[in-house]
Amino acid sequence: MSENQNPNTSQDVTTSTGTAGHPERFSDPGVPEHRPRLTDTDPKANKRSERIIVLLFALSCLGAIASLVAYFTVRPDGTTDQTRLSTLLLGVTMAISLLGIGIAAIHWAKALMSDHEHVDERHELRSTPEVREVAVKHLTDGVEDSGIGRRGVLKGAAVSALALFPLTFAVPLISSVGGDWNISKFRHTIWTSGKRLAYDPTGRPIKAADLTVGSVAHVIPEESEEYMASHEWITEKAKAVVLLVRLNPEDIRSDQSPEGETWSYDGIVAYSKICTHVGCPVALYEQQTHHLLCPCHQSTFDMADGAKVVFGPANRPLPQLPIAVDDEGYLVAQDDFAEPVGPSYWERLK
Q1: What's the Cα-to-Cα distance from 178 to each of 32, 171, 174, rounded to whole Å?
Q2: Contact 174/117 with Cβ under 8 angstroms?
Q3: 329 vs 176, 191, 270, CA distance in Å?
Q4: Polar residues: which segments have biased composition (predicted)?
Q5: How far apart are CA 204 and CA 223, in angstroms?
Q6: CB count, 10 Å around CB of 107?
Q7: How far, in Å, CA of 326 to CA of 18, rounded?
Q8: pLDDT tens, residue order, the chain (350 aa)
Q9: Fold that domain 185-333 belongs to in CATH
Q10: Are 314 and 294 in contact (CB under 8 A)?
Q11: How far is 110 from 120, CA to CA, in rounded Å?
């Protein structure tokens, strides 16, 4: 911009010509003529916009209150339907509260706040006292023009909406502080000595003779139909899922406990399906390399060498389920996993 040009005019300036006829400097188009809005010229329209904004903030308040009511009255009781209903109500009411604030703020800015354009010439890092005084005056004029000072109801509605919305997530967080903090449950699963391995999801027990070299099976503990229909089963199954693979026995380099006990049976090894990085299901098996891949972040484990990490962000092997065969030829667990399954937590850092 030319130093002597008035920024509020649209007159052209002389331009110099660069290579190939392209100008090196363009003329300043200036600031277009201000067009007043309907709310600037019609007091009724101004008041109508103010009422709409107040109603939007009020809707946000109602959404926040409804979210708190839904949180305390529709609590998950262990059933899928109740959990879905609680999640739906919390999501809808929080969305109404947040959208009310957002739409009201946008409408307020477009309809009531000052929309006059101001141009400040570029200057050194620190403006002169005169320029700073003008800038402060522009801000003061903008506040005065928006009518914030004389719109008490509007200010009250905005403050109420902004104050109530954080409660929609603060109350659930605070109320959960007194919840179940028994972390010992993370150390154990429902695998016990003698419990048969069964196919997931049918629950049919697995015989060692059913598996050929290279076979892969998704495994769960054998349980009664009544227990498998309960909500507790969903939680316990999530921790107990296992991937079973049959290898050539000579390919196995490590399948023993620290005490030297054998945890596999005739080349059949069983490891937790829960990745030790962030808990994704690990189920992509490559038969030639015996590598098991996590699809989330590409952590790779060697099934022939104690499921040790060979690539990726996981920092510890998959826990191994020690297995054996009972008198009827069915695969059974020797015991629970020797260490907690899944990613690390505050009392299980490695």
Answers
A1: 60, 12, 8
A2: no
A3: 47, 18, 16
A4: 1-19
A5: 10
A6: 15
A7: 90
A8: 444 444 444 444 444 555 556 667 677 777 788 888 888 889 899 999 999 999 999 999 999 999 999 999 988 776 778 888 988 999 999 999 999 999 999 999 888 888 877 777 665 677 778 888 888 888 887 777 766 667 778 888 888 888 888 888 788 777 766 566 666 667 889 999 999 999 998 999 999 999 999 999 999 999 998 888 888 888 889 899 999 999 998 888 876 666 667 889 999 999 999 999 999 999 899 989 999 999 999 999 999 999 999 999 998 999 999 999 999 999 999 999 988 898 877 655 45
A9: Rieske Iron-sulfur Protein (2.102.10)
A10: yes
A11: 22
- Give the up-direction half-sphere exposure of residue 9: CA atoms within 13 A in the CB hemisphere: 7
Grouping H, G, I as helix, E, B as strand and the rest as coil, residue 332 is: strand
Residue-wise DSSP of 164-221: HTTHHHHHHHHHGGGS---GGGGG--S--TTPBEEETTT--B-BGGGPPTT-EEEEEE
74's tokens? 């529709």
Q: What are the residue ranges spanned by the domains of the chain?
A: 19-178, 185-333
Place of tokens 């354009």: 117
